Amino acid sequence: MAFQGSLKELPLPDIIQLVSVSGKTGVFVLQSPTQRGEIYLRDGEIVHAVAGSTTGENAVYELAIWQEGEFEFKAAVDTEERTIKKSNTNLLMEAARRIDEWQVLSKRIPSTRLIPIFTNQSSSASISFTPQEWQVICKIDERRSIDELATVLGGSAFDVCKLLYGLVTAGLVELKEPLGQIPAERLKRMSPTELALAAKGIHDQAKALLGESDRLAELEATTRRTQSEMESGRGFDAVLDMIRSMEQVVSSALGPNLSRVFLERINQQLSS
Question: Which residue spans within 7-69 are E strands per DSSP?
Answer without folding.
Answer: 26-31, 36-42, 45-51, 54-55
